[in-house]
């Protein structure tokens, strides 16, 4: 059984890893005025953050269902099944697009998977699936492993300004925070597929330290974990944080990723996050 792995661009898996593990990419887009850019293809994260300094924030769009159909049908030539892993259905219709396309394709069996999260934490699912597919594991076994991973996956992120999330309707329950946002760095996470507030923290440094505490609650068991630090155009800060954490948690394998154009549109520059799961 030969299984293809598809994910969308909001997983922000480095290109070299996508190529190494043969992960197929379907892009979401950002739209500046009349210009549409497919993230990871037409525009990089660095180009995006430079662009938004000079013009209004773009809108974002999910892949058309027809694009999924075309991709799945093309994979049928070389594969027996497809696992299609996407950002949370609570913040985007991308997963539903994959489900709809799966019902329109007869040439290959498609297994859509709702990561219920986004960014490189979503990417962890794709990398795990691709590793198992390379070992010729069947799609049902791979889907079972993804469901198992979901039990230990955690992710928290901090934004400098909640207005982007509110405007885009991606933040659930934000009203509780509105009157007290000055000097507050809210920690956010995903619950029931939606982005919701986790805690209010007074400063950026305290917010990041709180995330480290949460990691320690899991990784303190001594079991092996994989984690990712995610930044919105704050690479050096993220690298420094990674170096500190690697010294503190020898049982955790850390990697670095970023909030790309689509997610960056909703979080804004300066956001920082971390996610992890038990290996």
UniProtKB/TrEMBL annotation:
GO molecular function, one term: lipid binding
Keywords in alphabetical order: Lipid-binding
InterPro entries linked to this entry: DegV, DegV_C, DegV_domain_contain
Pfam families: DegV (PF02645)
Domain of life: Bacteria
Protein's name according to its UniProt entry: DegV family protein
Organism of derivation: Mesobacillus zeae
